[in-house]
Amino acid sequence: VGRAEAETPLPPEFDLIARYFAPLAAGAPGALGLLDDAALVDVSPGHRLAVTADALVAGVHFFADDPPDLIARKALRVNLSDLAAMGARPIGYFLAAAFADQDEAWLASFVSGLAADQATFGIALMGGDTVATPGPLTLAITAVGEVEPARALRRNAAKAGDAVFVTGTLGDSALGLAALRGALPDLSEADRRYLVQRYHLPEPRVDFARALAEEGLAACGMDVSDGLAADLGHICETSRVGARVEWARLPLSPAAAGALPARPDLRDLVVAGGEDFELLFAAPPAREGAILGLGARLGLPVCRIGAVVAGRAVEVIDADGSIVRLASSGYRHF
Amino acid sequence: VGRAEAETPLPPEFDLIARYFAPLAAGAPGALGLLDDAALVDVSPGHRLAVTADALVAGVHFFADDPPDLIARKALRVNLSDLAAMGARPIGYFLAAAFADQDEAWLASFVSGLAADQATFGIALMGGDTVATPGPLTLAITAVGEVEPARALRRNAAKAGDAVFVTGTLGDSALGLAALRGALPDLSEADRRYLVQRYHLPEPRVDFARALAEEGLAACGMDVSDGLAADLGHICETSRVGARVEWARLPLSPAAAGALPARPDLRDLVVAGGEDFELLFAAPPAREGAILGLGARLGLPVCRIGAVVAGRAVEVIDADGSIVRLASSGYRHF
After folding, report:
1. Which of A21, A71, A85, B306 could be a cystine partner for B164, CB 3.0 to 4.6 Å?
2. CA distance B74 to B88
3. Are B134 and A134 within 8 A, CB to CB?
4. Which residues, listed in sequence order, are joined to residue B92 by a DSSP beta bridge?
5. pLDDT, tens digit, for every residue of B243-292?
6. What residues of B are in contact with residue A29 (Cβ under 8 Å)?
7. Residues 6+ apart with CB under 8 A from A303
8. CB atoms A142 and B42 under 8 Å
9. What is the pTM of this model?
């Protein structure tokens, strides 16, 4: 039996929804069982709905033959990271999927990934659309959360004199992608697995970001998706400030720290590789203790990496005081 | 100068957003100038947010060489029709666009279409994502509106004994598509233009649906996107009822009424062609006068086309009392 015959094509749209997607909506009364024309989303008094949308294309944003459950989880987590970037509590999401030649086994795995992350993050599928495309698999997810508007983390709230912080470690995802492409043949198997996992399965810093916003520890933040330098640039541009970060303070995982000395050409990936999905934020230096304490309470390392300054430039300062030159300054789609 | 050289490729993502999309967000403070990680959507007290998402793929849902402004407006209107189907007031939308080989002139036209319909419907762009795809142009729009939950039009609220109503006329869009494909060579130029316009530019029945819901004239409704028979089937399935509609009562435009006698094979398109984006709803027969009066007040013809009955079947009854057999029962993506 050839592969084409062994595949089970996707069932008709309504069966597809009933069998695979409606169970993902079970926890959300406002999803109306995915049976109506729109979902009805409730928002707590005093809150606003935070809404973000991301599109991902096979061959551009992920590999078409990546495990389907990981494709699903990453697509969801990229959006949850945007909600975290506002300090919002995630509520649910809408999935518009254009399927190419995916079969039913693929879909079952994809849906199992969504289900796993729904449980992890306490969210539900609330609606969407499934269509067929002659092109690559394309996923558009719109995630909704809620936040008190006065406490939302904004990009435009950095002030000269603030300290700059980042959660977790930087560069792992870009190094994981480089490893998948065969660029890091000397990695140990354990390090390779760790970095690839960081690429496939980002950890949106939802709990930390919510606590940071709710406890009023920071007003300015965003997630690192285009790379530290580019995203710090977005903060500086909207806040009309500059920033200096110290290379030596940038947090590296043991795997990244082990790989870089032999490959200084990959240093750029730490600052400009992107897809870190860590939280980058600015706050008065006096709050450093409370901020590091919050990280410790939630089991998430937080580093102070630099300072917000006057001007508009983003500079990465090397150990010898020189400015690190970047070959690229963040991921560009065009 | 060859075409390839004459084209201006799309600018980098941030320029693209600043130049073309940020102006579309000017009317919505919650869009935060498209400069932040998520939009903050405010909902009126006592209301819920109605959210709907649709995906459209070039070559599947529209022709890649359709005028870009019409592609934009139809993509938006399909979603506004889903909000109308809930009786919701539209607030704004999120656009996730995967661009293929579109150039800047194409984009300028596309954006002008969005701007025109934003003005028509009083909405704004609130966020989204633009990416590149090696496949066909793919658009995913998530539209948000608000509605009092107790007054929302639901699919599951039809009751045996209700009358079935529909706005506007049926079959025009499917006949317009047939005309574009060359299937209706005998059409007059004026009729052809009318039907093609109905295909390219649906009229979501936003004002009528909102008034219907707010005045409590109907509790059950949806928009006709898959075709009258299929969509009435959705109402019947979720409401656990059946329905009988009379062929002779189905509202036809002069262009459709003129075309069908010579082409009885196209009759199916009226009942099953889809993309009508009219409002289909059920209400107690005693409200017929008020409902027709509302249509007259808003300049929108409304027809009573049949009745909700016990059972689960949807039947279309011909003038001689026989049941109309349909070759197909609505559009299927798979």
Report:
1. B306
2. 19
3. no
4. B124, B144
5. 999 999 999 999 999 999 988 888 899 999 999 999 999 999 999 999 99
6. none
7. A165, A166, A167, A249, A250, A251
8. no
9. 0.93
